[in-house]
Design goal:
By secondary structure, the protein is mostly helical. It is built from 7 helices and 2 strands; from the N terminus they run H-H-H-E-E-H-H-H-H. The protein starts with about 20 loop residues before the first helix and ends in a 6-residue tail after the last helix.
């Protein structure tokens, strides 16, 4: 059993982003990340979100895909939003008075909320932009680009093919390990042990190690990694 990868999946289609070379997309993503972090304020964040959402839509993501990305991001975004907004509000107007800590004013809370929106919005824009790259680029093409990009470092002893193989194994193992985790949790629930860390962690670790050993044996059988 395999689960959906949190890195997103390639969407096979003929779109404008699909025809762009992977290297250019990676450079564009890097430039977008710099521009997003360099600019500040809710207005710039909104523009970044719109651009990233448009790129994701062009790459083939639809409502269900956006919902999946948003749900996963919300697990981190909601606590971070609350923390960022509260920290900014107290830093702006919170202080200790005779009766203890005095809460910030409404204006300070509004400024904190704006700051939280900027931080979370920028992060979500980067997630959407990365999802657009993932959806429009096959794994093989991305790995080939990485191999070519690392080519000049061969003179220093680098092995681009070995690095690309490691990246490929990591990417392809994530859904398998997530599937193992889901199966382990389901087995623990069936035995009434869903609250037992041991019933969930120990089988997960053992099966993950077994999966890694089988992968290593398959590579060794093909003579990969031997020198």
């Amino acid at each position: 059993m395999t689960a959906a990868s949190p890195l997103g999946e390639y969407i096979a289609r003929q779109g404008p982003l699909h025809r762009v070379r992977p290297g250019l997309k990676l450079l564009g993503l890097f430039a977008f990340a710099i521009a997003t972090t360099a600019t500040g304020g809710p207005a710039a964040t909104t523009v970044g979100l719109l651009l990233a959402a448009a790129a994701a839509a062009i790459a083939g993501l639809r409502g269900r895909d956006f919902g999946r990305v948003a749900r996963r991001f919300a697990l981190v975004a909601v606590p971070l939003l609350v923390f960022t907004a509260a920290s900014a509000a107290f830093a702006r107007d919170g202080e200790w008075g005779p009766s203890g800590l005095e809460l910030p004013s409404a204006a300070a809370w509004a400024a904190g909320a704006a700051r939280g929106y900027s931080v979370i919005g920028d992060l979500f824009a980067l997630v959407l932009a990365a999802s657009a790259v993932t959806a429009s680029t096959a794994v093989e093409d991305m790995l080939d680009t990485i191999t070519r990009g690392l080519g000049p470092f061969r003179r220093f002893g680098a092995k681009p093919e070995r690095f690309a193989l490691a990246c490929s194994l990591v990417i392809r193992s994530i859904p398998s390990i997530l599937g193992i985790a889901q199966e382990t949790a389901a087995a623990a629930r069936a035995r009434g042990l869903e609250r037992s860390p041991r019933a969930r962690v120990v089988p997960l670790v053992l099966r993950t190690v077994a999966h890694a050993q089988l992968t290593g044996e398959a590579l060794a059988a093909r003579g990969i990694g031997e020198e």
